[in-house]
Write a structure and sequence with these properties.
Layout: H1 2-40, H2 47-68, H3 84-119, H4 130-133, H5 135-159
Helix pairs in contact: 1-2, 1-5, 2-5, 3-5
Length: 167
């Protein structure tokens, strides 16, 4: 149980570092673009394109962090009325379902990436176009891993012997 929680926490820390880096680069690039345009009358041709794609990357990494923190899209109005054991079972079912959905989205986005690889389009600095979109299957994989680790943690907690009422 502790290993699963530690693995989930370590993955979340790495995602936090990535998110801070992405956001920092986006802010610096946007600021540089404003200064270059308003002061020098020029700009970085590739700057706006890179910032737009980094928003996509930050969104997926943020989605993975939201999943880790249990802040991903959820409807918990009914679960508040359930017993802790039934709530855990409902958590297993919903997290498992969400993980399966992420798996299918990851496979579909990988098919998209393969199509991008075959088109041989370019992004910036002569990088292949698919590199900018690679976060899509990778992001779904990160989210799926967090859902999977939550399922494992819930199943392990359900497998623990429960103290009887009155003890």
């Amino acid at each position: 149980m502790k290993l699963v929680a530690r693995l989930d926490r370590t993955l979340a820390r790495a995602e936090t570092v990535l998110l801070v880096i992405f956001l920092g680069i986006m802010v610096l690039l946007a600021f540089a673009q404003v200064v270059l345009r308003n002061v020098f009358g020029t700009g970085l041709i590739w700057g706006d394109t890179l910032v737009r794609h980094m928003v996509l990357w930050a969104g997926f990494v943020g989605g993975a962090l939201a999943t880790y923190e249990g802040r991903h899209i959820s409807i918990d109005a009914l679960t508040k009325f359930l017993s802790p054991r039934i709530r855990s079972i409902a958590g297993v079912v919903t997290n498992l379902f969400a993980g399966v959905v992420c798996y299918f989205l990851m496979v579909a986005s990988w098919t998209f990436i393969v199509g991008e690889m075959e088109s041989e389009s370019e992004f910036i600095f002569s990088l292949p176009g698919w590199t900018a979109m690679a976060i899509i299957p990778f992001g779904y994989a990160m989210i799926m891993v967090h859902f999977g680790l939550k399922v494992i943690g819930l199943v392990m907690s359900l497998a623990k012997p429960q103290p009887e009422a009155g003890q």
